[in-house]
Write a structure and sequence with these properties.
CATH architecture of the largest domain: Alpha Horseshoe
Shape: elongated
Structural class: alpha+beta
Number of domains: 3
Largest sheet: 4 strands, antiparallel
Helix content: 40-55%
Strand order of the largest sheet: 3-2-5-6
CATH topology of the largest domain: Serine Threonine Protein Phosphatase 5, Tetratricopeptide repeat
Number of helices: 9
CATH class of the largest domain: Mainly Alpha
């Protein structure tokens, strides 16, 4: 059993020591170490411990590891501290540091009898489930630890089991701060009837929009002709007005070049003005008649053009159109 506990300690701290050999940032590691020591003197262990962990990762050192173990012990995480002391003891022996080895061994002897333990009893049916896994506080618990009394920190731990096609199982386990063993029974995971189902898309009701469709109605051409006729009618009336004013001006010019009372004796200038006045008057009359007719015809075309009403249903899979004409 002692060999199993030591193996657990080594595995639990592998993440702390393995990556550190590649970090190689002693300056930052020293800064974090100094900050952590100051925080520890102020009993601010929750802030100091993460700094020591990062310092150890950046530049592994036996002294840093001992401080980290002490920090976790003062924080109340005695199982984690005990595991750190185990690794620190091995490193101190390799380095020939008897002083550090002595400190680590003393703390191991003190904490060992105080460690709470957790034993997992796994339902046999779970072992064959596809992609089954057990987690404690979101960290995997391998099958090598099942049925073994494994040291754990005091406090509340969340256990979760999951597998493909099964409903996940979760429970909370309260571990007392005393050397007791807590058992956790992981039941067979229930079948999830909804596993693998793909939710069918929700069918949406079509949104209906009603509007006048002037782009394809039968009255489209007639209304266009009405606009053209109306525009020409307005232009004809405008032209008639211009030529009418011009006729009046030429009439005045002719009267000024002819002698009263009958104005039949005219100079050549008066004759020309009189002729121009008659021509402008004729054009004005024709323009007024044509413009009025076109304007009236445009109005008739516009107000007699048929209307169309179209309903468009906008559905998720397309558009449907229905109309009344």
């Amino acid at each position: 059993m002692r060999r199993r506990i030591v193996a657990f300690a080594t595995i639990a701290l592998a993440w702390t020591t393995a990556p550190s050999a590649r970090a190689n940032d002693p300056a930052t590691a020293q800064m974090l170490f100094d900050q952590a020591r100051k925080l520890m003197t102020e009993n601010r262990f929750a802030e100091a411990c993460p700094k020591l962990e990062e310092s150890q990762r950046l530049d592994p050192a036996g002294g840093t590891l001992l401080h980290l173990a002490l920090c976790r012990e003062r924080e109340g995480r005695i199982a984690t501290a005990w595991a750190h002391y185990q690794v620190a003891l091995s490193q101190a022996k390799r380095d020939g540091r008897k002083d550090r080895a002595k400190i680590a061994q003393e703390r191991i002897d003190v904490l060992g009898p105080r460690l709470p333990k957790m034993r997992v009893h796994m339902a046999s049916a779970n072992r064959g489930l596809p992609h089954f896994r057990l987690l404690r506080d979101e960290l995997p618990v391998g099958d090598a630890q099942w049925s073994e009394a494994v040291p754990v920190d005091p406090g509340t731990h969340v256990m979760r089991a999951e597998a493909d096609g099964r409903k996940p199982w979760t429970t909370k386990v309260d571990v007392p701060a005393e050397p007791k063993e807590v058992s956790v029974d992981v039941p067979e995971l229930a079948i999830d009837p909804h596993a693998g189902e793909v939710a069918a898309p929700k069918k949406e009701e079509p949104r209906r929009v009603r509007f006048d469709d002037t782009s394809s109605s039968p009255g489209d051409t007639q209304r266009t002709l009405a606009y053209v006729a109306g525009g020409l009618g307005i232009a004809g009336i405008a032209a008639g007005t211009v030529f009418g004013v011009l006729a009046l001006n030429k009439k005045k010019e002719a009267d000024g070049s002819c002698r009263a009372p009958d104005y039949t004796v005219c100079s050549q200038k008066g004759l020309d003005a009189d002729s121009a006045s008659k021509t402008s008057g004729t054009v004005s009359t024709i323009a007024f008649i044509a413009g009025g007719a076109l304007l009236a015809g445009g109005a008739i075309l516009y107000f007699t053009a048929p209307q169309s009403s179209t309903t468009v249903a906008v559905a998720p899979d397309g558009i449907s159109v229905r109309g009344r004409f």
